[in-house]
Amino acid sequence: MSYTSENIKNTAIAGHGGTGKTTLFERLLFAGGVISKPETIESGKTVGDFSTEEIERKISIHAALGHVDVRGRKLNFFDTPGSSDFSGDVILSFRASEFALLLVDGRDGVQIETVKLWRSLSGGEKPRGVFINKLDDERGDFEKVLHDIKDKLKREPIPVTIPMGKGSALKGVIDVLSGKAWLANGDAVEKESPIPDEFKDAYEAARERLIEAAAEGDDSLMEKYLGEGSLSPEEMRTGLIKALAENKILPAFAGSALNNTGLMPFLDFICDVGPSPLTSVDTAVKSDNTEVKVPVDPSKAFSGLVIKTTYDQFSGKLSWIKVLTGKLSADSETLNVSENKKERVGKLYTCQGKKLEEIKELEAGDVGIITKAATMKTNDTISAGDSGQTFIPLQLPEPVHSVAVTAAAKKDEDKMGESLVRAAEEDKTFRYQYNGETHETVISGMGELQINYILDKIKTNQKIDLETAIPKVAYRETITKKAGAEYTHKKQTGGHGQYGKVVMEIAPLARGESYKFVNAIFGGSIPKNYIPGVEKGVVEGMAHGTMAQYPVVDVEVKIVDGKYHPVDSSELSFKLAARNAFRESMKQANPTLLEPIMDLTVFVEEKYLGDVMSDLSGKRGKILGQDSAGGIAEIRAEVPQAELLRYSIDLRSITSGTGSFSMAFAHYAPISGRIAEDVIKARESFKITETDD
Question: How far is Cα 354 from Cα 238, in angstroms, rounded to an integer?
């Protein structure tokens, strides 16, 4: 069946680990008639968690996509991982959706990942709502969690559904918008019912709050509400559609996914009120690097963004695409704008978890899958022709955990490399590179869990043994005072000899300025045609410093004099003279070591705040500031990278697995004393090989 843009709704289900996202996803498919029997996480048969690793670990690792049809509208749902280690799939799901539903535990309220997800959503002002789950538990408390959300997320949630009863006495929920009750019905789908008398006062109070929220979405409705004191259900719906599309309200839903409670009114709300793709815009970059907003528009020529790449053992390469303008048809010719290569689209699919369903076309706003697309990769822009613009890539966080990896058997190194390349293609938060400076293959990701998952998968699938180690830190060297030196390269062989003399002065630059080359030669003591050779020699000299063979940075090099021979001089002679002159100069310039400093942001429960700050101080960290809200603290600090190589493990230990963090490179800073001595000693085995080419 084909759906037009106005009949498509996309929702990303996200939340802290263990809040019930996959269970809700499974039960929505059940309530929507897609599956005849909902499965549990323990059974290993849910639609959302279908990979071997997810079934074994009983956690979501990948985003899963499914859909239901409600009154002729296609409701797409993304089931996303709860662990921050797999946050890349959450971000792509947010990008592909017009509405984000945050699951909140009805017992524990807002947790750390909830706060982080909220912040990532606030960057784009995406419409969002909250589903307060597990209200059948004895500790479940709808009103308490509503207050917790207001306290920690700084937005007042507006109940669209409210619970009838608490804990084991939970009978169902009331749909405030329609004025109907939905009664829990055991293992079956909820039953529609009149509102019981005992809950009518709670319903009237909730309806009043919802009417006020709806009136805020439309000026004419606000006038009517102020004049008459009420709105009809249809007027409420109209106001809520506008208010939600503009992210003016935060709808809240009550329920227990495991007990099929609160699902039907939620589906009705998404169907009738959920933001349409036609209200959303994406961002593209034109050929002159200016950004332009691109509304989702079915009337324009086809264009879309590849949001995800996976590999299936039966179907091969799968490219997930969000269609942003026009229509994508099966058996059509497209252009991969990012690669400037034509790509023929063969078959086109939608899916329910791992089950692919062949379709003929995808309208603007929909999400589907293309199989065996040779050139397509995540973040590529695909269009009917060259539009002169590409959609901006997924805004992913920087990796926070790295390990050096080697194949135990040398013969397996190529196989390991191929597997790591594919893993990096499937998960864009995972990085793989060979560090020529430290002679290590380094893989980086969002945490130990993600890294171990990828390595375990490679070991199992490729039948190879891998060894890991803590990666080496990329230190730098610089100078702290001005100095100068001269060097004459002179070599006599059978025919032409080699001759070049260079006199240079070096001086420190401000941190981060890297390198500056100044040609101050007057009178032709070094001919102009040899100056490029001089600079090549300086650059080669800076590649390995004089303290511990680390690259040299933040130095100005001025060539002030020299001498040449009309027969024996050459570019090579001056390159070698300059290289040695630089090293002699550096020895006189009071060289020092630099270490990378990272900007670190840590999210922890307030009860762990003291322990975390004490640990950071012990790691030579500099605390820049902290904020606390609703029991969750954010700590900002600058910490040497060398102290953070195992921080994901350390923080998990300190916070009983509840803390999380992000980090990014800040700058280099000098080190001395015992720390510098240890770095130099650890570097003693490093050998450099240079040729006088």
Answer: 36
The structure tokens 């509840």 sit at 658
Tokens 């904020």 belong to residue:
627
Q: What does the alpha-carbon distance between residue 243 and residue 679 come to, in Å, rounded to a whole number?
A: 58
State the DSSP code for 188. Answer: S
Residue 82 burial (CB < 10 Å; 0-12/13-18/19+)?
buried
- Residue type at 419? S
DSSP notation for 578-629: HHHHHHHHHHTS-EEEEEEEEEEEEEEEGGGHHHHHHHHHHTT-EEEEEEEE
Phi-psi region of 84 (alpha: psi -120 to 50; beta: other; left: phi over 0): alpha
CA atoms within 13 A on the CB side of 122: 10
Residues listed for the chain: 693
Tell me the C-alpha distance between 358 and 249, whole Å. 37
Phi, psi of 50 (to 5 degrees): -115, -10
Nearest alpha carbon to residue 253 among 72, 128, 98: 128
**What does the alpha-carbon distance between residue 644 and residue 596 come to, in Å, rounded to a whole number?**
11
At residue 323, what are phi and psi to the nearest 5 degrees?
Answer: -80, 125
Note whether 557 and 579 are within 8 A (CB).
no
User: Among the listed ranges 106-115, 215-224, 363-372, which one has the minimum average pLDDT value?
Assistant: 215-224
Give the C-alpha separation, 458 to 403, whole Å. Answer: 15
Helix pair angle (142-153, 112-122), 10° resolution: 50
Dihedral angle over CA of 352, 355, 360, 365, nearest 10: 30
Beta strands in 380-494 (DSSP E): 381-383, 389-391, 401-407, 431-435, 440-445, 466-469, 476-479, 483-491
> 39 to each of 19, 42, 541, how far by Cα in Å?
17, 8, 64
pLDDT per residue as tens digits for the range 29-81: 999 999 999 999 999 999 999 888 899 899 999 999 999 999 999 999 999 99
Q: Is 652 exposed, middle or buried (0-12, 13-18, 19+ CB in 10 A)?
A: middle
Q: Tell me the C-alpha distance between 500 and 480, whole Å.
A: 28
Please state the φ and ψ torsions of residue 189, each to the nearest 5 degrees: -70, 150
Q: For residues 244 and 251, is the Cβ–Cβ distance under 8 A?
A: yes
Instruction: In the chain, count H helices and then E strands.
Output: 16, 37
Report DSSP letters for 123-166, one per residue.
TTT--EEEEEE-TTSTT--HHHHHHHHHHHHSS-EEESEEEESS
CA–CA gap between residue 497 and residue 43 (Å, rounded): 80
At residue 692, the 3 state secondary structure works out as coil
| Residue (of 365, 363, 360) closest to 349 by Cα position | 360
Nearest-5° Cα angle at 669, 666 to 670: 170
Cα–Cα distance, 344 to 363 (Å, whole number): 18
Rounded to an integer, what distance in angstroms lies between the CA atom of residue 623 and that of residue 636? 6
pTM for this predicted structure: 0.86
Exposure string (b/e) for 147-180, b if CB count within 10 Å is 16 or more? ebbeebbeeebbbbbbbbbbeeebbbbbbbbbeb
Burial code (b: 16+ CB inside 10 Å, e: under 16) for 417-450 equals eebbebbbbbbbbbbbeeeebbebbbbbbbbbbb
**Confidence band of 437 (pLDDT split at 50, 70, 90):** confident
If DSSP states are collapsed to H, E and C, what string results for 649-684?
HHHHHHCCCCCEEEEEEEEEEEECHHHHHHHHHHCC
